[in-house]
Amino acid sequence: MSTLTPSAISTLLTTTTTKSPRESLAIEILHNLQHQHRWTDLKLFTVSSPSPSSFQSADSTPTTSPTRSRSHSHSRTRSKSPAHTTIFLISGLPPRHSYIHPDLQKWLIKHDADEASIPVQREWVIPLSLGERWSLKQFCWVFDGLAERDVVRASTTEGHNDAEGEGESFEWKDSKRVILGMLAHNGFGGDGTVTYYVMQEGEVKPRQNG
């Protein structure tokens, strides 16, 4: 009788010395981002304190000892803080823009500018399981610790002429945002699907169709 071959994620979880269910969840989400959505430069962060300065952008080195980052090697995490205070965050570069503000999108369409000309910025993902509840205070901890997003500069296509002149440029800065990566586990009312939702700081302008 033949035996079933474990999936890549099952093999990863069984060969990784994780103790915390939250860490296992974070690894599953990271694996999904890498292999299903083609994200690159993925890093896993732990936040063991509500202090806003306890973590920074993955482009810089965390400044406090309770927070440690590690690349996609899945080395063992040993947090000195209680498990319930540990928050896992994933940082990486998506292959395309995860979100474009309606005002910026309107400018790009109006001036026939390609969104691919705007550099993709690093995104932050919070791994969550279906039915998990977070308080507003927890989300505030995360947003307070995030660095401000970079200013993006868009320009019209070379040689493009319109009533407003040739070679017009446009600058835009998004508010802070995170992506909620929600996993519906098998056997717990879900099918193992990972769904992603964008959460932004402050008021968000609604999109207009047409």
List keywords for this structure.
single chain, 210 residues, alpha+beta, 4 helices, 8 strands, tRNA-splicing endonuclease subunit Sen15 domain-containing protein, tRNA_intron_Endo_cat-like_sf
What does this entry look like structurally?
The chain is an alpha+beta fold and 210 residues long. The chain has one domain (22-200). The protein has helices at residues 8-15, 21-35, 102-110, 136-145; strands at 40-47, 69-70, 87-93, 123-129, 151-155, 169-173, 177-183, 194-200. Strands 2-1-3-4-7-8 form a six-stranded mixed sheet, covered by helices on one side. Strands 5-6 form a two-stranded antiparallel sheet.
